[in-house]
Specification:
The chain is α/β, with parallel strands linked by helices. It contains eleven helices and six strands. Strand 2 and strand 3 form a beta hairpin.
C-alpha cells in the first residue's frame, strides 16, 4: 500500500498526513519488524481510511500501477518461485494486504494464486471495515484450509516470510524459511533451526538501505 500512496494522494483518496504516517510505518517495519498487535492496529487504521473509496476506481489505480509494483519484487524471490514451479509445485502469495492489490500483483508476477485480506464492500464502495484480515493465527489457518481443500500436504510445503507475525505459519509447514528476518523472527529461526535467506535488490530505497545497515550492526 505504501508504494501506491503517492498515486492515492494525487487522486484525492488520502492526504499528506496519511502519506507521512504510511512512510513512518514502513520505516519502523523495516528496522525492527512489528508484532501482530501492531499490525492489527495499522490494518484497522487502513480499513477506516478506505471508507467511501469507490471500489472500481481503486482497482483501476492498481491496474495502472501494476508494473511499478511488480518491479519492487526481489529478483531472488522470483527465482525461488520459478524453481518451485519447475518442480510442479503451486506458488501462492499469502498476505495481510488486500486481495484487490495482492491478486493482480500475483497474476502479473506469474504466480498461481493469492490468499489475502478482504475489505467489506457495499454499493460499490469500501465500508471501512474488514471482511477478513489475515495475520498471525488467521493467516496460518487460511493456509491450512487452502491446503486441505486442494489436497496439498503441509509437510511437503514451503513458506517464506520476513515477519515475526508469521512464525505460526512457518511452524505449520515442513520447509520454513526466514527471509531478511526481523529481530524476533531471527531469534525464532535460530531456536528452530530454520534456514535464513538474504534477498537483495539493486533498487533499495534509502529506508531499506538504512534498515539493512542497522540489522548488520545489530548482528
Amino acid at each position: 500500500m505504501l508504494a501506491l500512496a503517492p498515486t492515492l494522494r494525487s487522486h484525492g483518496l488520502i492526504g499528506w498526513g496519511s502519506l507521512a504516517r504510511a512512510t513512518l510505518w514502513h520505516a519502523i517495519y523495516l528496522v525492527r519488524g512489528v508484532s501482530s498487535r501492531e499490525l492489527s492496529q495499522v490494518a484497522d487504521q487502513t480499513f477506516r481510511l478506505m471508507r467511501g473509496w469507490p471500489v472500481e476506481e481503486f482497482r483501476g489505480l492498481i491496474a495502472e500501477q501494476i508494473e511499478p509494483l511488480a518491479a519492487l519484487a526481489f529478483p531472488d524471490a522470483i527465482t525461488r518461485m520459478r524453481a518451485h514451479q519447475s518442480r510442479g509445485e503451486r506458488t501462492i502469495v499469502v498476505s495481510s494486504s488486500l486481495i484487490d492489490l495482492v491478486g493482480p500483483l500475483a497474476e502479473r508476477l506469474g504466480l498461481d494464486g493469492a490468499i489475502a485480506s478482504q475489505a467489506k464492500i457495499e454499493a460499490g464502495r469500501y465500508t471501512g471495515r474488514a471482511e477478513t484480515f489475515l495475520h498471525g493465527t488467521a493467516k496460518a489457518e487460511a493456509v491450512r484450509g487452502y491446503c486441505a481443500e486442494h489436497g496439498f500436504d503441509l509437510a511437503d510445503s514451503s513458506a517464506y516470510t520476513d515477519s515475526r507475525s508469521d512464525i505460526e505459519l512457518l511452524q505449520a509447514v515442513g520447509h520454513p524459511f526466514a527471509v531478511n528476518p526481523d529481530r524476533a523472527l531471527r531469534k525464532a529461526a535460530a531456536e528452530h533451526g530454520w534456514p535464513v535467506l538474504r534477498f537483495t535488490s539493486s533498487k533499495l530505497s534509502l529506508a531499506e538501505a538504512e534498515a539493512a545497515l542497522l540489522l548488520d550492526l545489530d548482528e
